[in-house]
Structure formats: C-alpha cells, structure tokens
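BUG-289 | component: ligand-complex export | severity: low

The export step for manganese (II) ion jobs runs without errors, but we want the raw record kept on the ticket for reference. Input record follows.
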Amino acid sequence: MKKQANETEKPHILVTNDDGVAAPGLLALAQVMRQIGDVSIVAPDRNWSGGGHVKTLNRPLRVREVKLGDGTTALCSDGAPSDCVALALLGLLPRKVDLVVSGINSMANLGHDVTYSGTVTAAMEAIIWGIPAIAISLDGGQRNENELDFSAAARIARLIVRETLGRRLPKGILLNVNVPYLPIEKIRGIHNTRQGLRVYRDRLDKRQDPRGRDYYWIGGDFPTGKPEKGADIGALDEGYVSVTPLHLDLTAYPALASLRKWHWPFNAQPANGRTPLPTDSARPALIPA
Ligand code: MN
C-alpha cells in the first residue's frame, strides 16, 4: 500500500515580507500558503519598503514571537527582510526550508524597483542560501494597505507556488510576481516577462526643522513606467500577472564583450581580444593586489 503523506512530508514554506509583520498582505499570503505546506513566518517588525538588500552587521538582531490577525503565531525581528530570511535559513528555524515566499507587498515591484524592494531582496537572500524563492506584489498603487483586497493576489500566489513546487525552479533563480489590482475574474492570465523600465519622478524636498536646520525628504510623484510588450509593466498594464525570473548576476554581458576591445593602459597587448591578467610587476602600486 502507498504510504499516506504525513505532516512532515508537506513542503516547509517560509513566509516573509517587507511591509512588516502586521501587514494584511502577509496574513493573506500565510493563510493560502498553509493550504499547501507547513508555514513558518519570520518577518520584520516594521515597514522596510524600499529598504533594499540589507545585511545587518553592526548590531545584534532580536527575534520575538507575535500573534497575527487570525490568532496564529509568527516570528518577527528588528532586522530587514533579507536579515529575516538569513536568520530563518541559517538556523533560527530547526527545519530545512523548501521555498521562501515574500509578500504580498501592497505595491508593485517592477523594473528597477527590484533593487530597492525589500520584498524582492528577501527572495534574493534566499537564493544566496540555495533556497528557491518567490516575491509577490500587488499593484495597489498609493492605496492604504489596510483597504486593499488581497484575495485575488493570494489566489494567484497559491497557484504560482503550487506550480513552482511541482516543477522546481532552476538553481539561483527567483520569481518576481506582480498582480494587477483587479478582481480575480478580471485578471486576464499570467505572462512570463522581463524586467521593464520604471520612470521615477523623485524630487528632493528641502525643509527646515523647528531649530532652523535643513532636512530633506526624497519626495515627488509616484513612479510610472514604460508599458512595453513582454515586460512586467506592459503585462500589468494589460491586466495580466507578470512573472519575471531574476538572478543575482548583474553582469552586463554585451558590455563585457565590448570592454574586451578596450586597452587598459597598464596591460600588455591583448591577445585574441582577451585581456591578459597583469603580472605582479606590471600592477601599479595604487591598485591593490
Ligand atoms: Mn513594501
């Protein structure tokens, strides 16, 4: 007879986010993930949106247990989302994690947003430790997160996580998922996309504190984007979910090819377009060995 699946055979899913442990998007995600696997939650104790990929090195990280809106427990830390993932994967959780899912963020993470995004960089941290990861964001715009309906995005998250667990992501790849803010019946489908181009409209606001000292806010208008076909922004614009595979290798390969034609002044003559490594004697003193 076939062995019945028991609790320990369910996948272990780590849920995190960057909007903070009290965010409604985290609860919505945790609830659907519990339908798929055993869920652990390690999330930041405050909002880290725009916090980027952080490794806290100069202060200790504290972890405490909190209750979510549905009465279930979660762990939260005073570190960044990426710290939370590192904590979880490096030993805070006794059981090995099979998949990290970050979100549901209350705003889209499109184009260049991915380097600012705590949601996406939490998934990047998972990749560093060899664990597959998915970042999920809802294109909620500037709406208050407590007034957002996360139900469609939660269903999309469940569908994408199920598919990912069944198929297995290639090593080193994370999925950056963005869901349009539409009722589920209005969402037209899922498109595999590339990173699009955000148009940032930041402006520096200079103000004065009550003591007459200057301070600054990076303000301005909400970013827009170029709705190109095949790109994440274009897909959302047409009512599709975008799924963008990302990796951490930011090398600009076409530029690498053209750089090979440059002649760095302290190098010997390049042979066959390949730049030979400088010998120790040829290495100028100012360039550290
Ligand atoms: Mn956020």
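Assignee comment: Attached the raw record above. The chain has a mean pLDDT of 92.
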